[in-house]
């Protein structure tokens, strides 16, 4: 896939839900290695909702999100999340989203310190 899109695509951002949570670091290490070989930058699309729940997807547990962030960080240039406004907003109807937002900011502050 990367070979076909080399020179046409600048960045790829695989969604982390496409791999097992415990193998995320290996998944991103391998995909970034291949992307780099073809001149494509690698980002991570980290999900902020919980796929383990049937039908309705609530905001994820902070421990899962922290694990995902730690797993992808050494391998990718940036981390994005397309559903962040729904599942991690300080203005969300989900109380757990408000808490997840707070924990994420504490995590960032700790990394900067």
Could you please describe the fold and organization of this structure?
The protein is of the alpha/beta class and about 110 residues long. It has helices at about 1-5, 25-35, 60-70, 85, 95-110, and strands at about 10-15, 40-45, 80. Strands 1-2-3 form a three-stranded parallel β-sheet. Helix 3 links the parallel strand 2 (about 40-45) and strand 3 (about 80). The model has no long low-confidence stretch (mean pLDDT about 90).
Any chance you could write out the topology, listing elements then pairs?
Blueprint: H1 2-5, E1 11-15, H2 24-37, E2 41-45, H3 62-72, E3 78-80, H4 84-87, H5 95-112
Parallel strand pairs: 1-2, 2-3
Briefly say what this structure is.
This protein has 113 residues and is α/β, with parallel strands linked by helices.
> What is the N-to-C order of secondary-structure elements (H for helix, E for strand)?
HEHEHEHH
Radius of gyration: 15 Å
General shape: elongated
Distance, first to last CA? 40 Å
Low-confidence stretches: none
Helix % is 40-55%
Number of helices: 5
Question: What descriptors fit this protein?
Answer:
alpha/beta, 45% helix, elongated
